[in-house]
Predict the 3D structure of the following.
Amino acid sequence: MQFHSKTSKTIIAALAAVLFSINPALAATVTFIPDGGANTGSIDTFIPVDKIGTMPLPRGRVVFRGNVIEVTMIPEWQFDRQVVLRGPVLDTTISADGGQAVLRGTVFFNEGTWLPYFDSSRVVEDVATKDGELHGRITAINATTVTLAAKDGAMHQIPLRDITDIESPRAYTFKLPVVSPTVINPAQAFQASSTSLSFNSSDRPIRAAALKSQLAKGDGDWSTKRLVAIGTILSLVELGQLAPVLAVPLGSNGLRRTAFIKQLQVDAATGIP
């Protein structure tokens, strides 16, 4: 049996989605690359995750690519992944003990379809440094600096190395435990396995309730209620098409029923409605 390529892709996506939902805790390979600092470096991995903080993440997955994080999900009754949150990884540290280690860091989400639920231009963000705190809006982040527009209109360029804390609905800390069959040396690149990744928010998303409600109803065009409604409509249409046949009295003789059915076949062949 042969399938068209589009059909094959749909079937493969459906099977992958089912397998993923059955066992979301499959071990992920994590690559850590030190950057020369004190137990610091970058992460490369993709790992299944079922929530961000307290926010459910249906068939979710988190991808780390060095200094960038990407959070994706597959809405109910769909097969294509959507990028819901994306942003820079501000720092990653490692603590190791034998073949076990824990990677921790801070991420700052500034892109994605969920961002309006997490942030508002009216929210005041706090950046703490060794010299004190600054309050305003974070407008840009690069590999070394955070740019903050203060409430008084001043623009501040804050080195990442000086930041001790960020309080914002867009800022999350993460914890990624890993296990390796060999001793982990934080000063050297290594690969290990992980089955869990957790996030904690520094400030509650501003529209968390609205997003949770949307997810509960089925985020996407094919929610369960819609599918039931469509199935009901299709059933009624099918019954409507059969109505002329059902309208023939059961007590009618066989010749009359046969003639009626033949007429329906002729009408269908000629396109008569």
User: Anything to note?
Assistant: Residues 5-108+171-205 form one domain. Helices lie at 5-22, 115-118, 208-217, 224-246, 254-270. Residues 252 and 258 are 10 Å apart (CA to CA). The first strand starts at residue 28 and ends at 34.
